[in-house]
Specification:
Layout: H1 2-10, E1 17-33, E2 36-56, E3 59-67, H2 73-87, E4 106-107, H3 115-127, E5 134-152, E6 157-174, E7 178-180, E8 183-187, H4 192-211, E9 222-224, H5 227-237, H6 243-247, E10 270-273, E11 291-295, E12 298-299, H7 306-311, E13 322-325, H8 332-335, E14 340-352, E15 357-368, E16 373-376, E17 379-383, H9 385-390
Helix pairs in contact: 3-4
Length: 398
């Protein structure tokens, strides 16, 4: 099918550029109730996404569509005609697609264990930390391998294979009533220490939620964010540094400006990187490399995809999913020594850079008043993002 699609695209005069993104997914899935395996499933799927560019007058229009794997030639040509007409309704400034480089396929090293055996071992470790009252009511485990191939009209033919396993858990504490929390943990390696730590933490947290009480908190209080919320926090901090924001005049900071205004404590140093050595290209064909965005609180570079980078005469960085932030200067014990609210579970961290807002609905937190710690739930917090960045403190431990 891919061969016939390529042939059709190469000989279609109305199409200026095209990209085929093919993702082959192999997913080993296991479902457990208490400590018993309920279901196992092996799923193999293929997702094909076609993107085209069409020149019309002085503009360049674009359109994308998922193509079902069972699509025949006649149906494909009909879909293509519809895409071309849709692209003609888009009035973008022209830009050039990414050119090919002679790069070999890359793959992350596979796990040494058979996938279902690996998942069973991890689930056994999770259940090994349960008590009579604190249990995992439900556990789902996934081992997923994704092979991504990108083929373009400019001669790109890249391929990468990446894998991870994940545990979706419902930790439950049963007392006079039952309470639950939700956990979704991803792993790249079988690190038993990390797995045990996350399992114990999930059970400790659900016990704390069961014990949570109503407490009147001060109007102003230091808030400690957990690692699960830090990715979104730092992504929001650099949101304005995207090429798209700069081109559209939405960026509030320029290269050389301080992201943190008059920082009193730790200054942010942030780098965007590929997820692994195998993660060497994105959906546009940009070759991915680490790039430093913030150094010591100062904006050093913009980032983003090919289209808006071209408009700014910049080099595209591509879609870099991993955020690395340098350690801070504070011991964790020091951060916890003064009154604070340690967030354990949020319904979602809400950050609005243009409104200078940060906040969220708290499902579970630990409140330390300077003498004792009590679990609390059903609260919310809010504040100024600028104030947070100025007074940011980060732990020396990563």
């Amino acid at each position: 099918m891919i061969t016939s699609m390529k042939k059709t695209l190469k000989h279609h005069d109305a199409i200026t550029n095209w990209r085929l993104l093919i993702e082959d997914n192999i997913s080993h899935e296991a479902f457990y109730v208490k400590d018993q395996t309920e279901t196992r499933r092996l799923a193999k799927t293929q997702d094909i996404t076609l993107s085209i560019d069409v020149k019309h007058d002085e503009f360049l229009g674009s359109a994308s569509l998922k193509i079902p794997t069972a699509t025949d030639q006649i149906t494909f040509e009909t879909m293509l005609s519809t895409m071309i007409e849709s692209a003609k309704l888009v009035y973008n400034k022209p830009f050039n697609p990414m050119n090919a480089q002679p790069l070999k396929p890359q793959a992350e090293p596979p796990m040494t264990q058979e996938p279902f055996a690996l998942l069973d071992e991890v689930i056994k470790r999770y259940n090994g930390h349960t008590t009579k009252q604190a249990v995992f009511n439900q556990l789902e485990a996934f081992y997923t391998t994704i092979t991504t191939r990108l083929i373009t009209s400019t001669g790109i033919d890249y391929e990468k294979t990446m894998a991870q396993f994940a545990i979706e858990a419902i930790p439950t504490f049963n007392g006079s009533n039952s309470v639950e929390l939700y956990r979704y943990d991803t792993y790249k390696t079988l690190d038993e220490t990390v797995i045990d730590q996350k399992a114990r933490l999930a059970l400790d947290d659900v016990k704390a939620r069961y014990q949570a009480t109503d407490v009147t908190l001060p109007n102003k209080l230091n808030v400690l964010l957990p690692h699960t919320e830090l990715h979104q926090f730092f992504r929001s901090v650099i949101h304005d540094a995207r090429f798209q924001s700069v081109y559209l005049g939405q960026a509030s900071k320029a290269i050389g400006d301080m992201i943190q205004e008059n920082p009193k404590y730790d200054k942010i140093t942030l780098t965007l990187t590929p997820q692994s050595n195998a993660d060497f290209f994105d959906h546009e064909g940009t070759v991915l490399k680490p790039i430093s965005i913030i150094e010591n609180g100062q904006l050093k570079a913009y980032y983003g995809g090919n289209q808006y980078a071209s408009y700014l005469n910049e080099t595209p960085t591509g879609l870099l999913r991993k955020v690395e932030v340098s350690a801070g200067s504070f011991a964790e014990s020091a951060l916890k020594s003064t009154p604070h609210l340690l967030i354990k579970a949020l319904s979602g961290l809400q950050i609005e850079p243009y409104s200078d807002y940060i906040g969220g609905e708290i499902r579970l937190a630990l409140y330390f008043d300077g003498e004792k710690t009590v679990p609390v739930s059903g609260l919310s917090f809010s504040g100024s993002l600028k104030h947070v960045l100025t007074h940011l403190k980060m732990s020396a431990q990563t």
